[in-house]
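RECORD TYPE: protein structure
NAME: DUF998 domain-containing protein
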Amino acid sequence: MTALLWLGAAGLMLFVLTFLIDGATRPGYRPVRHPVSALALGGRGWVQAVNFVLCGALVTAGAVGLLATSAGWLAAPVGCLGLGLVASGLFPMDPVRGYPPGTPEGDPEVLSRTHQLHDAAGAVVFLAMPVSAFVGALVLDGAAWRIGSAAVGVLLLVLNHLFTRAWTEDWPRTGLVQRATIITAWAWLAWTFVHLAGGHAVSLPGLDG
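PREDICTED:
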């Protein structure tokens, strides 16, 4: 089960590395303004779509691995996060706000069913982020981990609020706010996976391996 925790951590790190490199090299894409999900559009859109699904699958595997640790209660919110990422890759958003190139700067008057499903999946992901941190504050061993996880949960609530405002009001730095939110959550969860994989796992009947 320890291997599943390492897979979860690897998936999170690969996700961030992929969207940073792809966003920096994609013609017409502006990382400071455009959301990560917009990378799933256009000719290279398959890269981010696969990134969503692969990261989601690995995070879900990591959630299964959490069941064999002293922090087993974390498995539920982390599993929801992973499945939300998979759905985000399967249901891409509509072209919006100038991307892909040639798309009008505003939002479409009518959003497709696929976009609506993407939004629902995103809501699950962004809710699961602070919930996971707050659950971590309750179940992780050690004062430092509990206090740190609680602080991350509060920070993620603030960042989620800022991202919601940024997206609704079309701030010119919407993408930057979203990236700060994702990287904060991913860093905490990846480090939690690594921490629990590094000798803090416990054996549960039927879950050894």
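COMMENT: Residues 201-209 have pLDDT under 50 and may be disordered.
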